[in-house]
Amino acid sequence: MTDNVTGKNQEASRDTEQARPEGGSGNVIAHGVECRIAFDKYINGRTAIVLLEAKNGERITTATVDVPTAELQPNHVIIKDHEENDGMCQALRRAGIVKYAKPGLHDDNIRFPVCELLVSPDQELSRDPASPPKNYDRLMELLGGEDYRRIEVEGYKDLEVWRWHSGGFGLCQSWVEHYDDEFVEDRLEEVRVYFRAMGKHEDCPAIFWDVTPVDIHDDLHGFYFVTVEGVFRETYATGKPELQQTLDTLVSKWFQDLRDQGFFEQAKKLAQQEKEQEHDPEISR
Which of 21-30, 65-74, 162-171, 257-266 has the lowest mean pLDDT? Predict the structure, then answer.
């Protein structure tokens, strides 16, 4: 990460000794610039705090880091508070953005403060208006926090959704033809799309803009192509970037069809059932 936050954070903190209330939306001084906060996501779904220039919205720095091996609560973040980010944790605390959650963790002999967010990333005004993930949100809505889910809706082919830890996703509906109740494997047909994470910032590639469809296999309409070569298929599949807009349109329509058919509502019900089972194991017996 090459985000630059200078020691001026400490100076700004001393000038504002009176701490703001928890959950406040005070601005933060980063790199000598007054900044407002916005939220992004790392590839693994964890929250990233981004600082934007308060007047023009220009991105100044990222205040957090991601340590994949660390165990975190959903509302906890890891602050980069060393080197060029010296003083960042104190500045965020005084602005009412975070508070200490537990002793810091160590990674590569560096100590990182672990803090609890006092401002919800789900608040509309706290999001970075320039980064509205769409495909990612839809896929996560279907997954309901899981890495794999099979969703059944009466009258439609089952939907499978999965997520790789590398940041990729898959979405598939498949069916088979039956003759005299015998399974005929070579009649398997499906609609399948693979998505990959697209980096948002070159200097912090772990924060991504969204996930983009790059590979489609559609037996219904006869679409078989990739827009980015060598991502999920063998190297013989030639990438066709000129078809990206076509693929985006197809996927957008598919998501809308899935919503109209009740798959998103069914995914919500499954997530609620799983949550109830966690709190009451007797339900799953």
Answer: 21-30
* The two three-digit tokens of residue 153, written as one number: 């809706």
Distance between CA atoms of 58 and 191, rounded to whole angstroms? 40
Q: Which two tokens stand for residue 119?
A: 């401002």
The one-letter amino acid at 21: P
Tell me how far apart the alpha carbons of residues 193 and 59 are, in angstroms, rounded to a whole number.
Answer: 32
Count CB atoms within 10 A of the CB of residue 77. Answer: 26
Q: How remote is the C-alpha of 130 from its chain's centroid?
A: 15
Nearest by Cα to 41 from 74, 70, 9, 71: 74
Q: DSSP string covering the chain, please?
A: ------THHHHHHHHT-SPPPTT----EEETTEEEEEEEEEBTTS-EEEEEEETTT--EEEE-EE--TTS---TTEEEE--SGGGTTHHHHHHHTTSEEEEEEEEEETTEEEEEEEESS-TT-GGGS-TT----HHHHHHHHHTT-SEEEE--TTS--EEEEE-TTS-EEEEEEE--EETTEE-GGG-EEEEEEEEEEES-TT-TTBEEEEEEEEEEETTTTEEEESSTTSSS-TTS-B-GGGHHHHHHHHHHHHHHHHHTTHHHHHHHHHHHHHHHHH-GGGG-
Question: How far is Cα 175 from Cα 194, in angstroms, rounded to an integer?
Answer: 18
Q: Give per-residue pLDDT as tens, 193-251.
A: 998 876 555 445 455 556 789 899 888 788 888 888 766 654 446 778 888 889 989 99
Contact 276, 268 (CB under 8 A): no
Alpha-carbon span 246 to 229, nearest angstrom: 16
State the Cα angle at 247 between 245 and 249, rounded to 5°.
Answer: 70
